[in-house]
Specification:
With 256 residues, this protein is of the alpha/beta class. It has 9 helices and 8 strands. The two termini are 33 Å apart. The relative contact order is 0.17. The structure holds zinc ion (ZN). The site of zinc ion has 4 residues, from loops.
Length: 256
Amino acid sequence: MADVILSILAHPDDAEFLCAGTLIRLQREHGWQVHIATMTPGDCGSMELGPEEISRVRREEGHRAAAHIGAIYHCLEERDLLVFYNERTLEKVTRLLRQVQPRIVLTHSPTDYMLDHEMTSTTTRAAAFNAPIPNFMTDLDLGDRLAAIPHLYYCDPIEGINPVGEDVPPQFCIDISKVIETKTEMMARHASQRDWLLKHHGMDQYLQALRDWSAQRGQLCGVAFAEGYRQHLGHSYPHDNLLGELLGECLRSGKG
Ligand SMILES: [Zn+2]
């Protein structure tokens, strides 16, 4: 069976923006199966459509973006601006982990510009720890436990800064220069968001923002486009940098 990488992020299009290049490379170069999960269907992402309507649109966009690289999309059906670290989300994320059995999990930075991202990060970190534990939530059928805690990585926070504006430098970057076009094509599947950003932020730069951010991370390590990561290195999580070994680290700052 193919190895599995799973991204668990808050909203449809977060994966395309933050980590799709890495997902594409693992799939193309190593034959890994890619799963892309979002906590919500993006129900607040419209000025005109109601929550049910825009959710329907965005679930479909999520499926199409994932299908573009042969990946599988999952929506955990929480709601925008209401993502919490609680028993229900722990149950959902643990069940998903046990269902897809990932070796590598990507999630949001523990500190980020909005709380849906931070709560998704916290929940994913906890679920990765819990998923191998046989006695966790035994009153629910969560599926076969993981053999071990998966390798857990945090994507860059949006704009690379924490909520008080301090830089959050990556521990290492993955060169995505060869797959930037495919990453952009995945993002283009989220057509509803280009419209929403234009109306809410007055910004008609949906795809350009993705390329600009990837280019900025690329500059850190002397390549055209890159994605930045930090590995969760707390007690009992795997410490070897499997992702970096598979795809090559193009930057490592600080200790190590
Ligand atoms: Zn988001």
